[in-house]
Design a protein that fits this description.
Shape: globular
Structural class: alpha/beta
Mean pLDDT: 88
Number of domains: 3
Largest sheet: 9 strands, mixed
Distance between the termini: 13 Å
CATH superfamily of the largest domain: Periplasmic binding protein-like II
Oligomer: single chain
Number of strands: 11
CATH architecture of the largest domain: 3-Layer(aba) Sandwich
Length: about 325
């Protein structure tokens, strides 16, 4: 029995499918299936079974789940203890919404790791809103940046770290014809997450799925909007330069501009890692606020670090 096998089981059980577990871990579905199969063979029980579109725990799986979750969390603690004993820097694993991941995490990590004091190696990856509490609660991640998660789990603490507002933008000078439900909406992966701010805007405007096109990034969606292919949702402070250059124009709707808050979510203080607490304090500094407000301002070449995307796989 290995931590890899237990990690696969915990995420399949908590997220409800092999596909969701693989997405959260950043690995292939066969990798998760193989790890789960090895655990099933060793314990002599199927542990989780398919029940229609979802997965259902067996009686043995229900008893194993809290124990496996604790073992996975202890494994994370053990890894940090060994790193500390060897004098290796602590790790900080950030999970973020797609917009925050695309624009903010890399400059934040650069500023955080270059600050004076205790060295911490940080990495980042993306996740959907409903995956984040599972990743945090089972110590696959140390902090989450994006939505408010505290309402989903009493072991999580969400604190606002940045306030902006969402706008709808399009290219050209004329407002798209018809109502929002008839417009073609250009979005990144957040549009597929109903709990995200973008998902809420689309739902409140009653935009049908047939009128949504998903792009690999927000930047790509905004470029397509500037080319006149449709409209896109954007945090206002991230498109200031594009508005000034005339590439995009704001299109008001009945629900936008809409207030939007980015939250930092961690475990409760007694379960919070040192690296998570250090990052929490860093986000209250003027440096962190400036990075979140102007992530495109850049850093000197000597301080630039390419983005590192964490694979959440023990």
């Amino acid at each position: 029995m290995t931590l890899t096998q237990l990690s696969a089981f915990v995420l399949v059980a908590r997220l409800g499918s092999v596909k969701a577990a693989a997405s959260a871990l950043g690995v292939s579905e066969p990798a998760v299936s193989q790890a789960l199969a090895a655990l099933r063979q060793q314990l002599g029980d199927s542990l989780v079974e398919r029940a229609g579109p979802a997965m259902r725990l067996t009686a043995a799986g229900s008893r194993l789940l809290p124990v496996a979750s604790q073992m996975v969390a202890l494994g994370a603690d053990a890894e940090q203890a060994v790193r500390a004993g060897k004098g290796i820097p602590d790790t900080l694993r950030i999970v973020a919404s797609s917009t925050v991941l695309e624009f903010v995490t890399t400059p934040l990590i650069t500023a955080f790791t270059e600050r004076p004091g205790r060295r911490i190696d940080a990495t980042a990856g993306g996740a959907a809103t409903d995956e984040m509490p599972v990743l945090l609660g089972n110590r696959f991640a140390d902090v989450a940046l994006g939505p408010n998660l505290a309402t989903q789990n009493d072991e999580l603490v969400s604190e606002p770290v940045f306030r902006t507002h969402l706008t709808v933008v399009a290219g050209g000078t004329a407002k798209p014809p018809g109502g929002p439900a008839r417009w073609l909406w250009l979005a990144d992966a957040e549009a597929t997450d109903p709990a995200s701010d973008s998902g809420k805007v689309l739902r409140r405007l009653r935009v049908p799925e047939s009128r949504i096109r998903v792009f690999p990034s927000q930047t790509a969606a905004w470029a397509a909007a500037a080319d006149g292919q449709g409209v896109a949702i954007a945090p206002a402070h991230l498109i200031t330069a594009r508005l000034k250059r005339g590439e995009l124009q704001v299109v008001n709707t009945t629900v936008t501009p809409m207030d939007s808050v980015w939250y930092l979510t961690t475990l409760v203080p007694e379960r919070r890692s040192i690296s998570a607490e250090t990052f929490r304090h860093f986000l209250s500094t003027a440096t962190a606020l400036r990075v979140m407000r102007e992530p495109g301002a850049g850093v000197p070449p000597s301080r630039f670090k390419p983005p590192v995307y964490v694979t959440l796989w023990s």
